[in-house]
Specification:
The protein is α+β, with helices and mostly antiparallel strands. The chain folds into 3 domains: 11-178, Bifunctional carbon monoxide dehydrogenase/acetyl-coa synthase(codh/acs), Chain M, domain 3 (2-Layer Sandwich), CATH 3.30.1650.10; 183-284 and 322-346, Ribonuclease HI, Chain A; 410-463, no CATH class. The chain contains 12 helices and 19 strands. The protein has a 4-stranded mixed β-sheet with strand order 4-1-7-6. Helix 1 crosses helix 3 and helix 1 (86-97) packs across helix 5 (219-228).
């Protein structure tokens, strides 16, 4: 199938990482303000099957080590192909791209981040035509309802602008369609395993009120995908019994998570960042992160380039959040989930959100309750935790009432919770899975080495 392609193509290359020192070029990514991938359904007679176009510089003429803008437009047609399938087909670009040796595709929609390795470039992967040919063959073979497929790669910034704006409008229209439907209204949720090559224990659970973390798959998209490809990476989950409506725990989701994660994940809370939070891959649009000093949450999106109020950038917190782990207080999320009434429902919702970038706050203005909107700080208001606490007090943020209640309540034991807690003793390393440790008091002292006679080696060295 791929005899013309100068590098290997197959599942074995899913999950490959191309580090900066090993990359030939970078396409999209955090350094490019405009990048996107978009699928459009067209009439059969309006596109040319198998056509691959390149608008702007091709890979071979790009300077080594540099970054470039990129737009990928995939136009499809078929008697059974409807616009409802656009988002489903679009997400396959991520999957199919990662089959290509040395071609790393991360994220989705307007956040795509692609790197080509020097090794694959030297082997001859020097044009988008090869990338397009791989996509064409996989689309035809795995989605036979597509009768025609035409692909355009755009690297010219001026030509990319109109596609970028069209893509943003298309994403917004898809997202708006899913609003209004409640998790209580359906008997089936959907799961997505497209990112398991990067996060083996991660399973995205998609409900009407909880979009996929990547922001690219709604409940309607999940239903459409499972309908055209029942054995594919997007599949139905019988939600089963509602164990906890506040936290969003369902027996069917738990059973599916346990099966799909090979037993690593046994419980999932859809509406909470604590206890058994929904796992995260690495393609999430943003992170909700707990700020213990304020007993509230900060929110940061992938495009925010500065450090957050806790002094950490998005990239650092992403490392703590991704990988298919359940980490208390670090929660991969999508923009659309932040528009949902179930957003961190068990944790207080927006009454618990204390900081987010100004651009994000404005973007969510119609979905953040008016009573709390002025009380949420941004990078324009505060730069550190002490300033944040002062700001929250001055604006009488709802979270301040929690501080008062905590001060008046009797002292509680410290609870440490984590996905894996390593303990090393006498040469043995013990890892407690999903452990919670409760202690009345925690004492931290330095460990000092001693010689055979019990003398202090550090002291001896000082002498």
């Amino acid at each position: 199938m791929f005899e013309e392609i100068p590098v290997e193509v197959g599942l074995v290359h899913e999950g490959e990482r191309v580090r900066k020192n090993d990359m030939q070029v970078e396409l999209g990514g955090p350094n490019e303000p405009e990048k996107c991938e978009l699928v459009r359904v067209r009439p059969l007679d309006s596109i040319t099957d198998g056509d691959i176009s390149i608008v702007g510089p091709d890979i071979g003429s790009m300077e080594e080590g540099k970054h470039y803008p990129l737009g990928i437009l995939v136009e499809v047609a078929g008697a059974r192909v409807e616009p409802d399938l656009e988002g489903v087909i679009e997400r396959r670009i991520h999957e199919y791209s990662n089959y290509i040796e040395g071609f790393m595709h991360l994220n989705q929609r307007y956040d795509i981040w692609i790197r080509l390795s020097k090794k694959s470039f030297r082997k001859g992967l020097n044009t988008f035509r090869y990338i397009g040919k791989v996509m064409l063959e996989l689309f035809r073979n795995e989605l036979p309802i597509l009768e025609k497929v035409q692909i355009t790669f755009i690297t010219d910034p001026e030509k990319l602008g109109p596609l970028y704006r069209e893509a943003l409008a298309a994403y917004d229209a898809r997202d708006a369609r899913a609003r209004g439907l409640s998790d209580k209204d359906v008997d089936v949720f959907y799961g997505c395993a497209l990112c398991q090559s990067f996060a083996p224990t991660h399973i995205c659970v998609i409900t009407p009120q909880r979009y996929a973390n990547c922001g690219a798959i709604s409940w309607f998209d999940g239903r459409a995908a499972a309908g055209i490809d029942p054995k594919g990476p997007i599949y139905a989950i019988e939600k089963g019994e509602c164990i906890d409506p506040e936290k969003g725990e369902y027996s069917g989701v738990n059973e599916s998570a346990k099966k799909r994660s090979m037993g690593e994940i046994s419980r999932v809370f859809l509406y909470s960042a604590f206890g058994y939070p929904h796992t995260s891959c690495g393609c999430f649009e943003g992170i909700a992160f707990y700020i213990p000093e304020a007993d509230g949450f900060g929110v940061v999106l992938r495009g925010f380039r500065d450090v957050t109020v806790n002094g950490l950038p998005f990239s650092t917190m992403a490392d703590s959040t991704a990988g298919g782990r359940q980490v208390d207080g670090f929660h991969g999320i999508s923009i659309e989930y932040m528009r949902s009434p179930q957003f961190l429902h068990a944790d207080g919702g927006y009454d618990r959100v204390v900081w987010m970038p100004a651009e994000t706050k404005e973007r969510l203005k119609d979905f953040i309750p008016a009573s709390v909107f002025p009380s949420i700080a941004t990078e324009k208001d505060v730069t550190n935790i002490p300033e944040l606490k002062a700001f929250l007090e001055s604006r009488n943020h709802p979270v301040v009432q929690r501080w008062t209640a905590a001060e008046q309540a009797p002292s509680q034991p410290v609870v440490v919770s984590a996905g894996d807690i390593p303990i090393t003793a006498n040469g043995y390393r013990i890892i407690l899975k999903n452990a919670r440790i409760t202690a009345e008091k925690v004492i931290i002292v330095p460990v000092r080495a001693t010689d055979d006679s019990g003398g202090d080696l550090h002291g001896a060295q000082k002498k």
